[in-house]
Amino acid sequence: MTWPVVVVGLLLLVFLHELGHFTVALAVGMRPRSFYVGFPPAVVKVKRRGITFALGAIPLGGYVRIPGVQRPAAGDVTVLTANALREDPSLSGPVQRLRRALDADDYTTAREELPELARAIEGASLSAGARRSAERAVREIDEGTGPDAYWRQSTWRRVAMFAAGPAMNVLVAFVLFYIVFATGAPTSTPNAVVADVRKGTPAATAGLKRDDRIVAVSGRPASSFDAISSRIRASRGKPITVTVVRRGHRLTLGPQRTIPSGQGYYIWGFSPGYTSVSHSPTASARLAARENWRVFTGTIGAFAGLLHSKERQQVSGPVGIVRQSEVALHLGINYYLEILGLISMSLAIFNMLPLLPLDGGHILFSIIEGVRRRALAREVYERVSVAGLMLIGLIWIIAISNDLGSNAPR
Q: What is the DSSP letter of 375?
């Protein structure tokens, strides 16, 4: 089973992306409150030095929770304490004082009012839901008015923190491509080594195995894939034997008939490996950078052409990514590393789209707020996020449709 390796590889890319955010946030003075790989609910959770580290049950991404992403406002307190006030009107005094401080942008006084509100909530007779919501109000205002709140930081710190995740994915892609080019990059030239044997085919029945090196077909020597393919096609459905070298031993498999491919020629039911070429360290670095650029331009082109059916077909969802990764892993580790590098670059580019709640959207809004020298209201973030989520949802629908379509019988 290769799919666990594939899933772990994808989760590792998510972990490294979030690690980029986490590391830079700490470096620039914004202490994260949580670090999730996968989305809640948490399967495993541990708290260290005030930071919650967790593995989420939904393996479709991850996040680092930064304090005070939006500027705290009186309206936030109103919404979050509404149920608590209905159940216990005695909370009205501390809630109103906190609201007045936030309305006046007096964040020092707002912080001073929080302990009293927290004590009042603790002593109030509230339902579980109302209590959680009121406690969340205290927590969010505490984080949003603190010195490490995101919205209070300089523009360069905010941009650096959100750019760190995609930058990490670009770096990871470069390293993966470098390893591939340095240790043996697959070419488009097939060789005589078997890379995969399809189930239920004559090759599988005859006992052909991955990594067998074919040396003859029906007793006639064949040292290249072109020669092997030519002799298999020439059989026109008649039984053939295939001679292979397996772990130093020469074996003859078959006879088994060849079968029509559906494209006008005959096959036995296996896929060849491809010749690999290793490069010097300098050349590997240059080729890795070139591959990063090729993936960047190709992915941007795919996103830009989503209205065209040909470009839409290039977008893959989680199922398609796992399927392609699994096929690559069957072919060899370098094929898999190449696919993983491509996915890492695609994650970087997708996250840099200027849409909230993606990293690129936060970078754009950080620059806008830096120019206007004032944080935007939460309501603005929420409205723009709705539009962004709709566009992201459209991309996901296209990707999942492609996954389902590629899995349909042909």
A: P
